[in-house]
Write a structure and sequence with these properties.
Shape: globular
Structural class: mainly alpha
Number of helices: 15
Number of domains: 1
Distance between the termini: 31 Å
Order of helices and strands: HHHHHHHHHHHHHHH
Strand content: under 5%
Number of strands: 0
Length: 440
């Protein structure tokens, strides 16, 4: 696999070239659940609530997978910046080993304890509970393949070459779009059909990655396993993974609180989250771009270039998130109606988007700053900040529910995002910028 040198060239061109394919891949990855919900939306709010409820635990899997994806991505990009090919192979080997262990364990847990996980949410709707478990159980093997697809995408990003990941993701989503209505409506499998379609699409993606990767994803037996590198990956990936796990667990607890307001509220929140992911897809592309860009330049000791890259990514992200915030406030109804036609659900989802809109710029600052700190090998810093303010959402929600009702939960989410963005930018100004500005 050819490495693209991110330590050379005009910064904005390099950042954009890196970010666009990641944005595309992120869009396609998110689209799996999005397409499932759009097709299932024709079955009503109960179907959307079923997929939405189970997706919290699917999200937990992504959070756990971040342990290996982030750690491997950082170390591979550093090794590439240092032009150490042997280390690159050893880190990829270590990442593959961790991934297969984590993937098998998580898939097994979902199958064995899925009913208990759904029961915890106290959905108070037998149909939603049954369909949630069915979707979750069939998503278990999907997660095993998705874990590898995400790892492969991140490794390609470290090489600075995201076109292959984008192409394979595009094929996967087309397959999912074709299969969803067939399994949901033609075979009359409902929510279960959506899960089966996504499983087939992810298996095909996995096979395409293996076939078209020029051998970089094959375990290199000549190099073997360096357990020190396994520990390095876990050490680097753990803070961010732990942050995301707590973030997801917080969302699960919030979902339990939301469930008290009925299945319409659950469906509305999940629809709101899917629409909000339109912003996240682009910003996550900037996160991946600045992380890979920073990683290689950090390895090459080009610190001034790291700062220029951060500023460039931040400007792009703020402009885009401001645009999306305006859409969330004034044009939310047409987006919501893509998923559902039930008036109560539409009203709740609209309130969610209008409140969350005010935190979009700050979420962008948080995400881009996170990418910078991850790239220089300090993911524990944003992790601590995120953990504190994400957990704070729960007591804030319980307090704000009294005067604002369901909207109090949305307000608590927005406030915590604003605080994280402000603190991470101040941290960049007082720590990172000051430390690397004059280092040659």
């Amino acid at each position: 696999m050819k490495k693209i040198d991110l330590t050379q060239g005009k910064v904005i061109s390099v950042i954009t070239a890196l970010a666009l394919p990641i944005m595309g891949s992120s869009f396609l990855q998110f689209t799996y659940n999005l397409i499932d919900m759009i097709w299932a939306g024709g079955l009503g709010s109960n179907a959307v609530a079923s997929i939405g409820s189970s997706s919290f635990y699917i999200g937990l899997g992504y959070s756990i997978n971040a342990l290996v994806v982030i750690g491997t991505g950082i170390k591979v990009s550093h090794a590439l910046g240092e032009k150490n090919d042997n280390d690159v192979k050893e880190y990829i080997n270590a990442g593959l080993l961790i991934n297969i262990i984590v993937g098998l364990i998580f898939a097994t847990v979902l199958i064995c304890f899925g009913k208990n996980f759904i029961a915890f949410l106290k959905l108070q709707n037998a149909v939603v509970e049954r369909n949630s478990y069915l979707y979750l159980a069939f998503s278990a093997p999907t997660m095993f393949f998705t874990f590898f697809n995400l790892l492969y995408t991140r490794i390609l990003g470290s090489f600075g070459n995201n076109k292959l990941a984008f192409s394979i993701s595009a094929i996967g989503i087309v397959i999912n779009i074709i299969l969803d209505p067939i399994f949901i409506y033609t075979f009359k499998l409902g929510v279960l059909g959506a899960a089966i379609a996504t499983l087939i699409a992810n298996i095909i993606m996995f096979l395409l990655f293996k076939i078209n990767s020029a051998g970089i994803f094959k375990f290199n037996f000549k190099v073997g396993i360096d357990y020190k590198k396994v520990k390095e990956i876990i050490k680097l990936g753990f803070p961010m993974s732990f942050q995301r796990i707590l973030f997801t667990i917080t969302n699960i607890i919030l979902a339990r609180i939301i469930a008290a307001f009925g299945s319409d509220a659950i469906a509305a929140q999940k629809i709101g989250l899917q629409i909000e992911s339109i912003t996240y897809m682009v910003i996550s592309g900037l996160h991946g771009a600045i992380s890979s860009f920073t990683g290689q330049n950090f390895g090459a000791k080009k610190y001034e270039r790291i700062i220029d890259g951060y500023k460039t990514a931040l400007k792009i992200g703020i402009i885009y998130s401001l645009f999306m915030a305006i859409i969330f406030i004034f044009l939310n109804n047409p987006l919501i109606k893509l998923f559902i036609r039930e008036n109560n659900t539409i009203t709740i989802a609209a309130s969610y988007l209008q409140i969350i809109a005010f935190s979009q710029i700050f979420s962008t600052i948080e995400t881009v700053s996170n990418g910078l700190l991850t790239g220089i090998g300090k993911p524990q810093i944003p992790s601590i900040i995120s953990v504190v303010f994400t957990i704070l959402r729960i007591p804030m929600a319980l307090v704000l529910i009294k005067p604002f009702g369901l909207n109090g939960i949305w307000i608590s989410i927005s406030i915590s995002s604003v605080l994280k963005g402000i603190i991470l930018y101040l941290l960049y100004m007082t720590k990172v910028r000051k430390e690397y500005k004059n280092v040659k």
